[in-house]
Amino acid sequence: MRLTPDKSTPDGKRLAFWGQDSKTSYDLWTVPIKSDSAGLRAGKPEVFLQTPADERHLSFSSDGRWLAYSSNESGTYQVYVRAFPDKDGKWQISNSGGAYPMWSRNARELFFDTLDNHIMVAAYTVKGDSFVADKTASVVRKADRWQCQQQ
Questions:
Q1: For residue 18, what is the enclosing H or E element?
Q2: Are 81 and 133 contacting, i.e. CB atoms less than 8 angstroms apart?
Q3: Fewer CB under 10 Å: which end of the chain, C or N?
Q4: How far from chain centre, in Å, is Cα 142?
Q5: Where are the chain's structural domains?
Q6: How far apart are CA 16 and CA 48, in angstroms?
Q7: Does pLDDT of 147 surpass 80?
Q8: What residues pair up with 31 in beta bridges, in sequence order?
Q9: Residue 132 class from Cβ within 10 Å (0-12 exposed, 13-18 middle, 19+ buried)?
Q10: Is this model's pTM higher than 0.70 or not?
Q11: What kind of fold does domain 2-150 have according to CATH?
Q12: First to last CA, the chain
């Protein structure tokens, strides 16, 4: 299995990664991380999400309760959110394609890239064990951002 480490929980106690499997494509895994006088040690890896779809590019929320990722389960890559640890709830955030989710520092927005080179943002709230995302809106085209930085 080919493994790609991605993000850690905010407290640094768990590392998330995606691994390629010949039967299920890319799947999401986590592994506990322990630190002591001998240094960092990884525990036993645990499957977070394993389906026939391609899941990757994870990001933990700032409170560690939510994990955003991209998946092609619908036929096009979209951004989804699940509780962490998983409680079988899943919320689709993007609606026109998306990847590379990133949580805002204020814990109220989730950013992601679209397949047509835009950065989108979805404001959200949490109600109990439910994740409620608002309608997404375009922030800026990456090409425009690059041009502005170059001037």
A1: strand 14-21
A2: yes
A3: C
A4: 20
A5: 2-150
A6: 9
A7: no
A8: 15
A9: exposed
A10: yes
A11: Neuraminidase (2.120.10)
A12: 44
